[in-house]
Structure to design on (122 residues):
């Protein structure tokens, strides 16, 4: 999650597991946290809500009802931290569920192989 190459490889793996929306949601939350303009925060929060939180979204992430209720209450005046609890819940889900499978996947092994080949070349 710390490097673009690592995120891209993990995202590719999540795509094969039909759970890419978890990574997309996490990345969208990271972008929202960097924003300072209130109008843009509101626009981005609404987009994230419609894309990942709304039960009508085809990319809806799996959140418990408590977190969903807090988000719904705060959507009237969203801040750049409105999705922090949800983001943590999704990060934890990826960390416990998807990431261990990723570490054992051919995609991860190929990434390690290509990185070790590049370091030998350097």
């Amino acid at each position: 999650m710390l490097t673009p190459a690592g995120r891209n490889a993990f995202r590719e793996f999540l795509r094969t597991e039909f759970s890419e929306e978890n990574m997309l949601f996490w990345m969208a939350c990271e972008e929202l946290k960097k924003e300072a303009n209130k109008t843009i925060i509101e626009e981005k929060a609404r987009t994230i809500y419609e894309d990942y939180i709304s039960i009508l979204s085809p990319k809806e992430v799996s959140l418990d009802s408590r977190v969903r209720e807090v988000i719904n209450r705060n959507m009237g005046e969203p801040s750049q931290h409105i999705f922090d609890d949800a983001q943590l819940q999704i990060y934890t889900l990826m960390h416990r569920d998807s990431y261990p499978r990723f570490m054992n996947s051919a995609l991860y092994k190929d990434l390690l192989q290509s990185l070790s080949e590049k370091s030998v070349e350097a």
